[in-house]
Amino acid sequence: MAASDGGHVEVVKALLEKGANIHAEDRKDGRTALMAASDGGHVEVVKALLEKGAKAKAKDHDGRTALMAASAGGHVEAVKVLLEKGAKTEFKDLDGRTALMVASDGGRVEVVKALLEKGANTEAKDPYGRTALMVASDGGHVEVVKALLEKGANTAVETPYGRTALMVASHGGHVEVVKALLENGANTDAKGPDGRTALIDASTGGNVEVVKMLLEKGANTEAKGPKGRAALMVASDGGHVEVVKALLEKGANTEAKDQKGRTALLAASTGGHVELVKALLEKGPNTEAKGPDGRTALMVACDCGHVEVVKALLENGANTEAKGPDGRTALMVACDCGHVEVVKVLLEKGANTEVENPVRHNRGRI
């Protein structure tokens, strides 16, 4: 075992001539000499062991075969030797992964090609419903993705959670992988059970190049994912201004609301994302729209003390006299929260100081 692990081929041959047990397993992990040699990429040792009858189908305690070990390490010559000796590509380890999945996960493109040439199944799935294409897409391994696509890997396969290769690549911001998938017909508007699309995934992560690519392929900007949020909403929540601009250029609806009744402007104002607020305001959204708590974007920004957002909203006609469900105006909110700079800005814009604050139980004017 030690000689095989170290790649000492002459020692291995000598031991075999002396009758060493070629099928012996390590008590700790169940590995055989062939697995050890394959794991290290020791091709000549692998050949010597196979010539003496080593079993390529043997598995260790994790269910891994010699082929999986060689594939994980990217040892393409060892992989080829094992395949020539009939190593099975369809075997799975205890994690439900085939050699192709293992190689795809590690970005081992030459190993992937060798496995595919021997008929490795591109559609085999792990317990999570992931194929080799999904695993490679998730890891951003574009050359592996291309090799799989050339062999007809299905871009439409979904996990039980409704995830496609395009979605995971978009979420990770893997531009070249997304490009390859789109060129091979990946559906931009495939949805998971929660309504999430690739565009929503990319927008959530602020991956603007992916967003632009999806939009060029006609991705639907109005599709709604978890909590009723469209791509514009999640990008606004995250403060991803370039993504917001790209979505707006393609006509994303600024008045769309999530399940709570929030608009993108309300989300951006809450987060204090001033450049994003300005981008939205250029498209003329309704500054008087109220969220689930009955407050406008101006009230929310005043509550949070986002003075630059307050300025932007006021410059675009936000109403200083609008009242929330408790009867308070933006000025009252800013005063109650102690945001002096916000108060100054509101006063400069003529906010009415004579309105009574109902929260103070008529204890006087503010």
Sum up the structure in keywords.
Serine Threonine Protein Phosphatase 5, Tetratricopeptide repeat, 4 domains, 366 residues, 22 helices, mainly alpha
Explain what this protein looks like in three dimensions:
It is built from 22 helices and no strands. It is an all-alpha fold and 366 residues long. It has four domains: 1-88, Ankyrin repeat-containing domain (Serine Threonine Protein Phosphatase 5, Tetratricopeptide repeat); 92-153, Ankyrin repeat-containing domain (Serine Threonine Protein Phosphatase 5, Tetratricopeptide repeat); 155-253, Serine Threonine Protein Phosphatase 5, Tetratricopeptide repeat; 263-358, Ankyrin repeat-containing domain (Serine Threonine Protein Phosphatase 5, Tetratricopeptide repeat). The radius of gyration is 30 Å and the shape is elongated.
